[in-house]
Design goal:
two-stranded antiparallel sheet, globular, Cytochrome Bc1 Complex, Chain D, domain 2, single chain, mainly alpha
Length: 390
């Protein structure tokens, strides 16, 4: 699927016009018909499998537009973690959706001491261009050896040579770091387009009077935004802010909510493996941040499972039940429905956000189902057909 898209995007290449200075010298004339803007260049790069070692993987492999910009591939690890370009390596985190990613603020520590924003689940890159530069050089992702090798791949494409020189200057390829940074800027520019964040879900349409929520969806909406009956909006409500005028369903802070280890990842990585979350960020050394992960957007959450940082839960309803266990005294609610066993202990037992998690009463099945129904209304219109499969 991804390779088919790539062939379409890259198939419209213009002829390379050699310079009068001699064959083989790169010369920029004007952008080709298919790359008229930096965003269009970023689109081509986003789908380009040639930027991986074995020419088999692109950004879209793990963040596919057809499936909410999450990884749709069923592999030996299911959809928990992503398979690398080498066909055998796996990451140790679930690939987050790239939809609405542009609204995450720059990574920073607020005056209150709370870390906010950034890209990746641990915020290790401040912005989208930093995030775009990571996977091509990651040995378990796209697997390229170094920036020099990636720039060499860029220069194989005459359209890229023309576009890069037009948008970033004639000398762009004379400096490897500049050329690489230019590539990441272009991908980031594409990810900032409305293609990634259309705000056209049933929820958005209901706000515009174009769709009427069902009774169950409306109950879920009331519960979600309630400050009395659930704790959802403590972390998953942004309100209008400097990063977004519309609701993105994340405050972009970091929390440890007590998610258990994924046994399959531990088996792959070795006994004793622990993902320390925010503490893995090179900018963070405070042990009080151990086990915390960035609050994700809930946009398209119903079609982008598996769930949690390690993909340990398959079903969206299971996620709601996991939160509910903190407030329920029912023995039934202390059982993970996917395993039939009690919820496993947290991967990192320290720093759990108990104040937030224990806010609100226990929920019955009617309210849990209503919350799931509401979360499904946050699905972009072009993905609504995927809900039928779910």
């Amino acid at each position: 699927m991804t390779m088919t898209i790539t062939k379409i995007v890259l198939g419209c290449m213009i002829a390379f016009l050699p310079s009068s200075a001699g064959a083989g010298q790169e010369t920029a004339k004007k952008p080709s018909d298919d790359i008229k803007s930096i965003e269009a260049l970023g689109k081509s790069l986003y789908f380009d499998v040639n930027l991986s070692q074995n020419r088999s993987q692109s950004c879209a492999s793990c963040h596919a537009p057809e499936t909410g910009f999450a990884d749709p591939r069923e592999t030996g690890m299911g959809k928990m973690v992503s398979l690398g370009d080498d066909g055998k390596s796996f990451g140790d985190r679930n690939a987050p959706t790239a939809s609405y990613a542009k609204f995450s603020p720059l990574f920073h520590k607020g005056k209150d001491g709370i870390y906010v924003g950034g890209q990746f689940l641990d915020g290790r890159e401040a912005d989208l261009k930093g995030q775009a530069g990571g996977p091509p050089l990651n040995p378990v992702e796209m697997g390229m050896k170094d920036k020099v090798s990636i720039v060499a791949r860029l220069k194989e494409n005459p359209s890229y040579i023309t576009a890069f020189k037009t948008f970033y200057g004639e000398a762009v390829f004379q400096d490897t770091d500049k050329a690489y940074l230019s590539m990441t800027k272009a991908i980031a520019a594409f990810e900032k387009t409305d293609f990634f964040s259309p705000f056209d879900s049933k929820y958005d349409r209901s706000l515009r009077g174009e769709y009427k929520l069902t009774d169950q969806e409306e109950l879920g909406r009331l519960l979600f935004f309630s400050q009395q009956f659930t704790n959802c909006n403590i972390c998953h409500q942004l309100h209008k802010s400097e990063v977004a005028e519309k609701e993105t369903f994340s405050n972009y802070q970091y929390h440890n909510i007590g998610v258990p280890s994924n046994p399959r990842i531990v088996a792959m990585k070795g006994k004793g493996f622990v993902d320390h979350g925010l503490l893995n960020n090179p900018k963070v050394s405070d042990p009080k941040q151990d086990g915390k992960f960035k609050v994700p957007t809930l946009r398209n959450v119903a079609v982008t499972g598996s769930y949690m940082h390690n993909g340990v839960f398959k079903d969206l309803r299971t996620v709601i039940l996991f939160y509910n266990k903190y407030n329920s005294r029912s023995e039934k609610r202390q059982v993970n429905p996917e395993t039939g066993q009690k919820w496993q202990k947290p991967e990192v037992a320290a720093n759990i956000s108990m104040k937030e998690l224990e806010t609100g009463p226990a929920l019955d099945d009617k309210r849990i189902n209503a919350l799931v129904a509401f979360l499904k209304t946050l699905t972009d219109k072009r993905y609504e057909h995927l809900l039928e499969k779910e």
